[in-house]
Design brief:
Strand content: 15-25%
Structural class: alpha/beta
Mean pLDDT: 95
Helix content: 40-55%
Oligomer: single chain
CATH architecture: Alpha-Beta Barrel
Low-confidence stretches: none
CATH superfamily: Aldolase class I
Length: about 210
């Protein structure tokens, strides 16, 4: 496993503006990082460019402080502005080639592949650093998300040579099955940021990768 792939492992915490009040944003992200989150993605669909710039910069700063990776959802320009470690793109976002050209060879680029192994193979061939499958379980964040299976995860682990992220409705009681089926990262939103004790919740997920 190369150095970059080794970093793409563990709890992948994704922020949600509906769960994290802006004034508590830094404190709650820091709590997830103290709990062992290895990657934090800034996901915020609001049309508030100045605020988004500030919060994205906060994530980059905190991730550097804790030795974690900072990823920006969808927005390549914002990722460039705040010097994030990378960007995550979906089927309706900018092309992977554009993200690579804009952010450089050192950037981490992740691609949503939903329940399609073909999309994942194509993304790997185009230079993605990791792919994400899901939703594996019903998700409050994306209730209409395409369902993915543990069988897909296991097959993808055999076929792909880049890390795999699982997303969608992941809770502590269903997370272990994803790790044992081949997930290198668990992308978690509500089960971390809606928890009463964010640090403790993040630690429980992080510990699954130490078994």
């Amino acid at each position: 496993m190369n150095t970059r792939n080794a970093k793409l492992r563990g709890l992948y915490a994704i922020t949600d503006a509906a769960l994290i009040p802006d004034e508590q944003f830094g404190a709650r992200v820091a709590a997830a990082l103290r709990g062992g989150a290895r990657i934090v993605q800034y996901r915020d669909k609001r049309d508030l460019p100045d605020l988004r710039l500030k919060l994205a910069a906060d994530i980059v700063r905190l991730c550097r402080e804790y030795g974690a990776l900072s990823i920006i959802n969808d927005d390549i320009e914002l990722a460039a502005q705040v010097s994030a470690d990378g960007v995550h793109i979906g089927k309706d976002d900018a092309a992977l080639s554009h993200a690579r050209e804009r952010l450089g060879q050192g950037a981490i680029i992740g691609v949503s592949c939903y329940n399609s192994l073909e999309l994942a193979i194509e993304a790997e061939q185009q230079g993605a650093d990791y792919v994400a499958f899901g939703a594996f379980f019903p998700s409050r964040t994306k209730p209409n998300a395409t369902p993915a299976t543990l069988e897909l995860l296991a097959t993808a682990k055999q076929k792909l040579h880049i890390p795999i992220c699982a997303i969608g409705g992941i809770k502590l009681d269903n997370a272990a099955s994803l790790v044992s089926s081949g997930a290198d990262m668990l992308a978690v939103i509500s089960a971390v940021f809606a928890a009463q004790d964010i640090e403790a919740a993040a630690r429980r997920f992080s510990n699954l990768f130490m078994l």
